[in-house]
Design brief:
The protein is an alpha/beta fold. The protein folds into two domains: 95 residues, Alpha-Beta Plaits (2-Layer Sandwich); 160 residues, Vaccinia Virus protein VP39 (Rossmann fold). Helices cover 30% and strands 28% of the residues. Helix 6 runs parallel beside helix 7 and helix 9 packs parallel to helix 10. The two termini are 29 Å apart.
């Protein structure tokens, strides 16, 4: 159900170190990510970011792949002809020496090498459980996270879009007298639980998080406990259509467009009049279909946001 991917015996990961010249290029990383996402056997691509807020630079990519369908050498040789005109990609080919394969049994330990605290904004940080937060502004919200075997750290553009939009929503509603403790939130495809945990940390006392991956369910529960909000989050692997028709004030879904389209009727049945939806996991080719479905369903589009190649749609139901 979620964008997050659980490594297993049938999946492997690779860490792709980006050359400095590629990092400095404005669009070379986007070229690489778009290419990788289009290959058979690639299940997820997550950018590892570093640097000051607002000027972070990608340092590498974590790529989850099915070794029966593809291998790292297949991704980069032959180098795509379409990139021959791109100076940074052309002169750095084939970059095979930059790829380190991660075996499934080494997955958890690999995060400690590849992932460190991440700034989503000036007032929101994601910090791995094995680090002590440092140089974080007083009063900032800090989400402690251990991805374990559930892929998803908050570094990926789709997750950052969601967190930034939830933070903006939180600020706007709080300023207008909105009381988060009275509201209910549904996180569809929770993965590591990061969105559900953010909602609880902001004051929601009734958060439902669902995922069809039993490992993600376990990891979400563990992360909720790490952040001391486990008493406010109910996590399970029930399909959306099996949930009782509780009405939610906010529904978030960081999942693929085709899954959003499939589940949209069920989500709308569970959305309060005047409630808000945030949909991410969308790319340029797929977000128009979700936009059209939202309009047809009577949702007002509040805004569309883009980060890299990814899009988020913010909608509101009529009263």
């Amino acid at each position: 159900m979620s964008n997050q991917v659980t490594p297993s015996a049938s999946r492997m990961a690779a860490y792709y170190t980006l050359p400095t010249s590629v990092i400095e290029s404005s669009n070379a990383v986007d070229f690489i990510c778009e290419y990788l996402w289009g290959l058979e056997g690639i299940e997820s691509v997550e950018t590892i970011l570093d640097g000051e807020i607002g000027s972070e630079k990608p340092q590498g990519l974590i790529v989850i792949f099915d070794p029966e369908k593809t291998q790292p050498e297949d991704w980069l040789t032959p180098w795509p002809d379409a990139w021959s005109a791109h100076s940074e990609l052309s002169k750095n080919k084939p970059l095979l020496g930059c790829v380190k394969t991660i075996m499934p049994e080494d997955w958890e330990s690999s995060w400690k090498q590849f992932w460190h605290q991440t700034a989503v904004s000036e007032t929101l940080w994601i910090c791995p459980s094995w680090e002590t937060p440092a140089d974080i502004s007083p009063g900032a919200c800090v989400i402690t996270l251990d991805p374990g075997n559930a892929f998803g750290t908050g570094a990926h553009e789709t997750t950052r879009l969601m967190l930034q939009s939830m933070e903006n929503l939180s600020s706007e509603l709080t300023a207008s007298g909105f009381n988060w403790s009275d509201k209910q939130v549904l996180d569809v495809g929770t993965g590591s639980g990061i969105l559900a945990i953010y909602a609880a940390l902001r004051g929601c006392r009734s958060v439902r998080a669902i995922d069809n991956d039993s490992v993600a369910v376990r990891v979400c529960r563990e992360n909720a406990a790490l952040n001391h909000v486990d008493s406010y989050i109910t996590v399970d692997d029930l399909p959306l259509y099996d949930l009782c028709l509780t009405r939610y004030d906010l529904i978030v879904a960081n999942i693929l467009a085709e899954v959003i389209l499939e589940l949209l009727p069920e989500m709308l049945l569970r959305l309060e009049p005047g409630g808000t939806v945030l949909f991410s996991g969308l790319i340029e080719k797929t977000y128009p279909a979700v936009e059209q479905a939202m309009t047809k369903a009577g949702l007002e589009q509040i805004h569309k946001k883009q980060l890299g190649d990814w899009f988020l749609l913010h909608g509101k139901s009529p009263y």
